[in-house]
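Why run this: before we spend reagent on co-expression, it is cheaper to look at a predicted model of the complex and decide which construct boundaries make sense. The entries below are exactly what would go into the expression plan.
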Amino acid sequence: MNSKKTKKIIQHTIMIIFTLIMIYPLVWMFSSSLKESSSVFVDAHSLIPDGLHFENYILGWKGFGGISFSTFFINSAIISIIATIGSIASSAVIAYGFARIKFAGKTIWFVCMMLTMMLPFEMVMIPQYIMFNKFGWIDTYLPLILPTFFGIPFFIFLIMQFIRTIPMELDEAAKIDGCNNFSIFFRIIVPLIVPAMMTSAIFSFYWRWDDFMGPLIYLSTPEKYPVSLALKLFSDPNSVTNWGAMFAMSSLSIVPIFIIFFFFQRYIVDGISTSGLKS
Amino acid sequence: MIPKKSEHSPAPLEEVSTNPDLKKKVNFVKPRRKVKSDNHNVTGYLFISPFLIGFFSLTIFPILYSFYLSFTDYDLLGTPNWIGFDNYVRMFKDDPTFWKVMKVTFFYAGVAVPIRLVFALLVALALNKVVEMVGLYRTLLYLPSIVGGSIAISIMWRQLFGNDGAVNSVLASIGLPTHSWLGDPDTAIWTLIILYGWQFGSSMLIFLAGLRNIPKTYYEASSVDGAGPIKQFFIITLPLLTPVILFNTIMQVIQGFMAFTPSFVVTNGGPVNSTLLYVLYMYRRAFEYFDMGYASAMAWVMLVIIAIFTAIIFKSSPHWVHYESENK
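The model came back. Tokens follow.
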């Protein structure tokens, strides 16, 4: 009994030390954002700031070139929210088509979709850029938002897996009651796949919020920058003078991610676990 | 098979039925059937139409276009001129940077991916043993993964390993020599590898879910047979996890190969190109030198490399991936 207890204590001690080391960089970033700018790199590893210097946040929020971080956060929110709505709505519709309707050539298109999922974005980045350039869409949000309205293979797959767990009898009963595929989708399927749509929405929001490559190649006017791109400019090692403010804005940029994570953790964990196991 | 045939080629049915009454009946039934099946096709294609539009306009066309561009000297302003295999020849023969980039990227992916996977597996095994507070550990250990893609993390990493960053500060405080981690070509790539390994959370969650799926009775049975925990790991846990490991390996290899943000933000490819990863070089070729032809050729070489890798992993999988339904 006693040795079991000792074993447990050792187990937890190792886990706690390990966990602390792993989250140290994150805590360090937050604590550096509260340090006085000139003392950030004095005893740099220390996690205890010399007082709470919230002025870093106020200074940092002013941004650069007369554009404050309010603009960047609003831009990021606009891009992320519209793109997320687009991805989820289209992915749900496509997933229903693949999961529930029998039609000629379905297998081929499904294989195409799975191959698209494996295809890295970098492969089509250059030709897409040239295409959007010809359309005159450079320095607009269209190249960042519009492609999401054609479904995201990963989400289609995730939602499909979820639809498959819904008993077919529900569809059939609705059909007998005179529902066509469209009303089955909207009245029966959509309310039942909300969890899978939530998981997809969270991932979509993360990816759009963090997206750096897209804005980097498509946007050129600083007023249109999302937080990710603005932060890169703001932190340019050659021009940064206020380190505290840089850490403050870096910390703020991941706050939306944290908030969503802590509120919707369950969906994320379920999503990752099932998507990894079922394929 | 047979009813399907009758839907699409109704002719044989008509020939068989000599009775005019029956023929009428068949004729009456036929169109209804046809309409129904067409309806399904129409609805099916209607539902997947967003995917089809996107697939053709944003995947298939760009891929073919990129293939064409890789044989041209397109620079975004002029018209593309056909130059045959020049881009490919230049890449393999006359561009030492390309080979440097290949070396760096293979080293990065070859070291960082196994580190992340082994780390993820070990932590998942440990978490599987711990009973209390699993949720808390899991959440905290998953955090680096959830924020890892963010630019803020790359910026923080640059400062963490900077000359007067936290790592050197810790070393100094315990009396060890400090080092210019980002300035030394030998260590700079390791800061990126550690950054990649640090974000083991998603893989850990997938492994953890895989571990939970292994029936407890297997372990009970084997301990009756006298197998210790280490033997159990090799004869039960590892074989049963192989499908999950396969999936993880493929996804991580692709992701490792595609890494861009860390090398762009933390080190910007330097010093002396020691952290110039493939995508960063491709980005520079395309959007700094506007060498669209060359960059497209690079994209195609990358696709071939990834395809070969995936094929090797898949082809070798029967030898090491264990599917329960298959044998036993």
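The first helix of chain B runs from residue 2 to 8. The radius of gyration of chain B is 28 Å. Bring this page to Monday's planning discussion.
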